[in-house]
């Protein structure tokens, strides 16, 4: 998923924007550059940096995905979600820092993907860190809930990483999900669960319900953030009303879902 429309323009800054749960002070522990944008919201905070760089090449894209993978692992407990647009810079509730950073400023401070989990020796020269980040995220979910859905895994990958062809991301997710599905979501390298089979089944049912609720909350939050973003006016009709079809295409969501949440949001 593209972060912002100007990713192919060399003269404009590139926004790396995330929504995280928890306290905004968490990022201070990792010696990251002070954010270009910081805003406390009801469910966590928004944090972003203006990046000076061009990511229209394969090398640039791989470097960007490497940094996103490191960020996802460093702040795993905060459930980071990358947002597909630039923030509104005239928001008086946000802290704005008019600074632009080089992407390599993050590579020395964000945790390496190999510092958290074990990756086979044969993968040492395998530079597809996007694949490993998705795989390790899948293992985290299986460890916590005993199962994961393909839709959930693909949703995570599509929202976190960029790729010139989305079919490549989907193929990675399908391969990872099939691998664990064929093994009944058992992780040989992890400590065995102490739950009984009945408790595990209940945990899986609860997880499915939780995923469904989280999906609804995430969809509503994504729509609300777009309506408050710089790109908001691009998704309005001539009469000033929101264009649900345009929003659904931009966010890759069902138009009926968009209409439902626009109605709820505008009635708040």
Task: Give the helices and strands, then pairings.
Elements: E1 14-20, E2 37-41, E3 44-51, H1 58-74, E4 81-82, E5 95-96, E6 100-101, H2 104-107, H3 129-145, H4 150-160, H5 166-181, H6 197-227, H7 244-251, H8 255-266
Helix pairs in contact: 3-5, 4-5, 6-8, 7-8
Outline the structure in words.
The chain is an alpha+beta fold. It folds into three domains: 1-111, no CATH class; 114-192, no CATH class; 196-268, no CATH class. The chain is 43% helix and 10% strand. It has eight helices and six strands. Strands 1, 2, 3, 4, 5 and 6 form a six-stranded mixed β-sheet that branches. A hairpin with a 2-residue loop joins strand 2 and strand 3 (44-51). The longest helix is centred in the last third of the chain and has 31 residues, at 197-227. The protein is globular and about 50 Å long. Mean pLDDT is 76; it is low at 1-11 and 121-126.
TL;DR?
The protein is 43% helix and 10% strand. The protein is α+β, with helices and mostly antiparallel strands.
Features:
8 helices; 3 domains; 43% helix; 268 residues; six-stranded mixed sheet; alpha+beta
